[in-house]
Amino acid sequence: MNKKISKEEVERPGYISLKDLTEEKEIEKLALKLKDVLSKTNKEVIILCVGSDRSTGDSLGPIVGSMLKEINFPLPVYGTLEEPVHALNIHKILKNVKEIHHEPFIIGIDACLGEPAQIGSILFKKGPFFPGAALNKVLPGVGDYHLKAIVNCLDSYSPVQSLNSTRLYTVMKLSEILTKIIYRAVLDDDSFSKGPFKKLLTVED
């Protein structure tokens, strides 16, 4: 779980809100941004999804990782519901990634907290993010670029409660959207939402 997103940060390029009728256009816009970033690197691209399945709000990363695995995504993916990447093992995972992949280009995926009006939005940003910042954990930065989804608002007195009280519907919906963005950016294909895994990625409210 990443830190709370500020108002200034959401006004920067790469921030999209998915609460209106332009959701599909916004997904395509962000997929194109990610595709452009990936086209400019010659390094091996790794998708690193951070979070824990023990907390609803923090489970977004592992859910995205599992969704990508389910559709046989062609790039290496770390962090799934079966094998999550979290505070207790992130140092080991990052070490393994660097040993297996020579100077990889890492796209980090994580959930974060924001203002109430920002819930359901996604931020795409250059540089690493720092998992656990909202809980005052000191962990290594992750990613050359990263995608963060705002899953809930921050209760400054009890950030753990913010994570545990997050709606599963919100997490699943944002996980589906992130998976679509990554899929389209890498495979230049919009058939993902029409394929056999549509039921897996659709949550009834």
Compose a concise summary of this entry.
By secondary structure, the protein is of the alpha/beta class.
In whole angstroms, the N-to-C terminal distance is 24 Å
* Helical proportion, percent range: 25-40%
Contiguous helical run count:
6
CATH superfamily: HybD-like
- From the 3D structure, determine the CATH topology: Rossmann fold
Can you walk through the features of this model?
This protein is an alpha/beta fold and 205 residues long. Helix content is 34%, strand content 17%. The protein contains six helices and six strands, in the order H-E-H-E-H-E-H-E-E-E-H-H. The protein has a six-stranded mixed β-sheet, with helices on one face.
Topology, please?
Elements: H1 7-10, E1 15-17, H2 23-39, E2 45-49, H3 60-70, E3 77-78, H4 90-100, E4 105-114, E5 121-126, E6 145-153, H5 159-164, H6 168-187
Features:
205 residues, Rossmann fold, globular, 6-stranded mixed β-sheet, alpha/beta
